[in-house]
Amino acid sequence: MAENDKDTRSPLSGDAPDMPGTPGADMPAGTFAASGTPAAPGKGSELSGDSAAPASSGASGSAAAPAETGEENAAAPTRPGRFGRLTQDEGVRKLTGMYRNWFLDYASYVILERAVPHVEDGLKPVQRRILHAMKTVDDGRYNKVAGIVGETMKYHPHGDASIKDALVQLGQKDLLIDCQGNWGNILTGDEAAAGRYIEARLSKFALDVVFNRKTTEWMRSYDGRNDEPVTLPIKFPLLLAQGSDGIAVGLASKILPHNFVELINAAIAHLEGRDFQLYPDFPTGGMADVSRYNDGLRGGAVKVRAKISKIDKRTLAITEIPYTTTTESIKESIIKANDKGKIKIRKVDDNTADKVEIVIQVAPDESSDKTIDALYAFTDCEVSIAPNACVIWDEKPHFLGVKEILRRSAEHTKYLLGRELEIRLGELQEAWHAASLERIFIEHRLYQLIEGCKTREEAYAAVDKGLEPFKKQLRREVTTEDVQKLTELKFIRISRYDTEKADNEIRQIEEDIRSTQYHLAHLTEYAVAWYERIRDKYGKGRERRTELREFDSIEATKVAVTNARLYVDRAEGFFGIGKSMKDAEPVCDCSDIDDVIVFTKEGRYVITKVSDKAFFQKGIYYIGVFKRNDERTIYNVLYRDGKNGPLMMKRCAIKGVTRDKEYDITKGTPKSEILYMSVNPNGEAEVLKVYFKPRPRLKKVIVDLDFSTLAIKGRQSQGNLFSRYGIHKIVLKERGASTLGGLNVWFDEDVRRLNSDGRGKWLGEFKGDDKLIVWTSKNQYYITGYDLGQHFPDETVRVDRYDPDRIYSLCYYDRGQRYYYMKRFTAETSDRLQAFLDEDADFVCVTDCRGAQLEIAYKGAHATRPADLVDVDEFVGVKSHRAKGKRLTTYDVAALRFVEPELPPEPDGEEVPSDGDPDGAFGGGNPAAAADGGAVGSEDAGNAGNASGNGGHAGCDGHAGNGAVPGNPEGPAGNVPGAAGRDAVSRTGKPAAAKPVAATHGLPQSGTVAGGVEFEIERAKGDADEVIDPEQLNLF
């Protein structure tokens, strides 16, 4: 085939056409001439023949995985390279005028040759040169790092220190380099040992996917003595797997690492025309919020948090750390935050070795839940990483998303596999041609034609003439080189020539040719098979380490400890926490990042950040810590509108305002004055006794003002008219209770936090001593309060409102006894983890419905036995959760399910929030399907040796009270009166890890309802009031 018949350029090369968008499109690859030598390659795809392409062994018609690559000694032309102008001998360069372009040259060099990775192989130049140097010295044994550094200096002109650092970073990524010795620790930040002590060699993965001299483009090294690769022919998205950091001149590149298996699956999905998603996976583990990842482009952000667990009430343990941090940096940040008063801890110990373990002792008077939030807010336990995917393509920097980088990598891998197949096809055709010529030459005794020839040319001509009748059988013309090889055959080979063996070899070559041609015709399937082979061979042990979660926002002011005291000088109008305010009136404890709200007697107020000393206005009436967006803090105010105006009363909440902007809680009339004000953190409403000044026509001089009769309105409301008479004094008659009712609480399963914003599952309206019960997958539960700031363990599977009288009926399988048991118990009020099953027991199913029945189906020798219905209430009594319970049966159990009685329809009532009734039915089961076979170990079973295992689902079926369809988490929610029933089946089989609550549960879901009740009060009417003497008032 002619040289220009087919474009041989890579889809990623600078002057290549657009990449094929369809995975099944024709392969983009170069074409080789019939002689097996490559046609002239285009830019970005020069070949040097030094290793064989993957050998194809699959039969025609199937997309077999590519085989390993071998090597041959061949060399392709090498271009001068980027350093050519520095090594040219001819000409003299003058310094005059060089200053005009020196900065541009420097910036371009740093961007292209130092800091930014190439999109084709995902490597920076120093990394590429390290791998190439390691390949040149590779013999399967470890090499000293110092020796590798010295070998790399043949190609990298920037010194041994930078090479060694880059080599250590490559080794710590645990992908391309097999390390031996002390290579440092990415968890603790410990440095690697000196290069003379540690050793390295290429990993099997690197040898498999990184190198192939025949598909590598070469250039001259910086000194012109050696050849180095322009890019390595890596058939894997290495850039996304390892990640990359680099700071160049005027730009930076930050590509986060991704999961090995997920990258391969995404590449396969792209080749097959399916969509995919990619999110970071960090080697240090931790938790990541990727909601703003933005495909790795500029403007995105990834929040990464450490995993913090509670060992006990006063001890926390950090077991995984955020990417870009070390245990040492986290420990230092914790100590620094403690010294600044942001958190209160007693001690922090770093016990990290192979795994992270930082133990924190919390101060006795501090909450561990609040401390966890404070660690995220004030230390390196939470970091925000800004990705910026910048790569080199076509000799220029480009900003590409990670999905686009993956697509280009997959297409480039497909292109490289096609090149390898074409090289392999050319080699096979050459092998077939040589074998056929040899067979003809020997079988037809053409070597006899050489007799009598006096010169080499005469011998060549005689053999060529003798081959003339057989040339039609060949696939290409016979060249002089072919004839020369025939004449150089040794006589011993001719005498021992085995025709049958030669025919078999030719048939095998023909089979390989057909297989290779098939793979070339189905290149997409071949590339998918390649990825699948890599995944199966190297994907074990590379599961995702970073948990993807959506984080709840932590307000620093809510979790900061009180490390300062607020003072106020009311007369002069100063306030603050500095030393200069120590002699003033103390107000309260606060933190140095809090906001404070300051009121004057005239009703003007401002919200500002606390400082050492600040001035607002003379005559400060009230000052306190302000909580932004706090809907439950209510301000009860009685004020005079103007100098001789009426008395107004109001209740309002001050939520979000602009900091340092002045507002007015009155109408704003000049010379208005606050007569009484109280700040109530839970909406309390007091009763005041108001004494009016005596007047001739005033019959009632003492009046009660009950703030609970006022509606809570906005801060800009004028309020209601109270009186027009003058006031003698105001006395607090009674402190009232909260008028806001209970607190509606939801549980957000995504972030595992409680909230009052309506996110997640509604748990109910809580007040006073109400409690929650928390169930975990370790067959444990505990009782806790409804504090919105508390954290739940990772094993949490369900959170419910706690009812001390609720009875739970539970079935489990005892592996030791090989029997199924049922027990009934009420949950104990304890904040410690309570195990309701032993270690050798497997949870099967549970219900809390009264009057339920348990249906037992049988199998094996007792398969014909009808199912039994057991009255749960009568079968076993209510005891402690520690009780063993009562054995159900000795027969072979096929399935267990709770059947609940049908209840009469309930009358329509007031709707509750639409996510369900927190006191509704509870149910669940282990979703693991039971295996067939196996018997309960009993004499009646006849096969006591086989233990029956753990069951499957046991949950609600039908309607349970007012709410969603139980047993279907996706079901509709609402007011659905109906019969409560259970129809969840648990199957017996191999015991699995016990889970007290499965995904199919019986609690109806519920939504939100507006909180608060509004009341109206009649406006009092009277004559004009006198001027009130403030000194006679019992003010706030």
TrEMBL record:
In this protein, the active site sits at: 197
SMART domains for this protein = TOP4c (SM00434)
> Which stretches are tagged as biased composition: Gly residues?
948-961
What's an example Gene Ontology biological process for this entry? DNA topological change
Q: Low complexity compositional bias: what residue ranges?
A: 51-67, 927-947
Signal: is it a keyword of this entry?
no
Q: Name one GO molecular function term.
A: DNA binding
Compositional bias of kind Acidic residues: 903-918
List the record's Gene Ontology CC terms alphabetically. Answer: cytoplasm; DNA topoisomerase type II (double strand cut, ATP-hydrolyzing) complex
Q: Which family does it belong to?
A: Belongs to the type II topoisomerase GyrA/ParC subunit family.
- Which NCBIfam families does the annotation name? PRK09631.1, PRK12758.1
- The protein's name is DNA topoisomerase IV subunit A
The organism named in the record is Alistipes dispar
What does UniProt list as this organism's lineage? Bacteria, Pseudomonadati, Bacteroidota, Bacteroidia, Bacteroidales
